[in-house]
Amino acid sequence: HLQNRTCIVESFSKVTGGSSGIGKCIAIECYKQGAFITLIARDENKLLQTKKEIEKYSVNDKQVVLCISVDVSKDYEQVENVLKQAQEKLGPVDLLVNCAGTSVTGKFEAIEVNSFERLMAVNYLGSVYPSRAVISTMKERRMGRIVFVSSQAGQLGLFGYTAYSPTKFALRGLAEALQMEVKPYNIYVTVAYPPDTDTPGFAEESKTKVNCSSVLL
What we know:
disordered C terminus, NADP
């Protein structure tokens, strides 16, 4: 479970793609354990709504939920700047959870070529950029954890997911290579493989929901 693997109390957690889905779920779980949260996503209205939901779970009056509206997949310098500003407000990042992602399904030849480019930008670079922006501070402090939320489609290719699966496979390669670099600095890199409930036929076969407290295993 999350509480057995990372000390969350009085820590500073950043979640990309945190305005909905798994990202929001993880943010709530961290907040319940006393973390200061920074939510990063594109939709400002969703962010503010999620902020209100998360604040209901506060365990002390010091906790803060900071919202940043930015596209983490487009401009690295912008991502770096907003994360720097966030760290100046709340302190250095102890835990970064990369949840930003999107999906397109269909047969290979029916998927528009620009969809392959967009998915690689969001699902892969959208995790590279935030991680790159915080890694130096983590190394200086000799502590930190980075989590990449992949997918079961990142372990096994699925019919109709020729644009999506490779982007999630890429996260595993990134995580494994990065872990080798940062382990001497007491930084841990983790990949989570939750099920994709929108996979064709999957929703009918499984009604199991993702256990938010164990996503960071």
